[in-house]
Amino acid sequence: MDPQSLGNHPQLKPPIVLAGTAKEGGAGPPIGLIDIGVSEAAYLFRVALPGIRKNECGVKCEIQRDGTIHVRGVVTPDAGFLRDSLNVFQLRVQQLSPPGPFTISFKLPGPVDPRLFCPNFRGDGILEGMVMKERVPVIHVDG
After folding, report:
1. Fewest CB within 10 angstroms: 16, 57, 79, 135, which?
2. What is the three-class DSSP state of 12?
3. Nearest C-alpha neighbor of 134 from the set 71, 63, 62, 72
4. 3-state secondary structure of 101
């Protein structure tokens, strides 16, 4: 596939389904914005999860053979307070997604091998995943 034509490819604009608190987010940075990259052998996707703490949200990423991705987790409640290493702040404005479970579902442009998946939840709130495309066995016929 020619890299110049990738941006106009209709399959590269997948519908995104948001559920739970991902759907209820306010004016802040939304949960669930995605990027999808394509190479000869794999797909790379990035999902924005702003305000979600890697060690407290239980994010799970389910990959299906048809290329459907389900990202699930929980926005943990702050009980009206924000904390850093030294201070506790009372929450006055909350525009990030409210506490509770969320699901983000989208589809990659083609089938994949779910066993060959490499996830990385980055420190900037981006879940990045690379999954290999499904390899179709080539059968050579002599004759």
Report:
1. 79
2. helix
3. 63
4. strand
> 106: closest CA among 66, 133, 135, 51?
66
Q: Which two tokens stand for residue 31?
A: 């949960």
10-residue block means of pLDDT along the chain (143 residues)?
49 68 64 93 95 78 97 77 75 73 95 96 92 86 70
Could you tell me if residue 14 is inside a domain?
A: no
At 89 the three-state DSSP class reads strand
| Residue 68, pLDDT score | 98
Task: Specify the number of domains making up the chain.
Answer: 1
- CA atoms of 27 and 7, how far apart (whole Å): 28
Regarding pTM above 0.85, the answer is: no
Q: Which residue has the tokens 């608190």?
A: 21
The answer to whether position 140 is within a domain reads: no
Cα–Cα dist 40/115, whole Å: 18
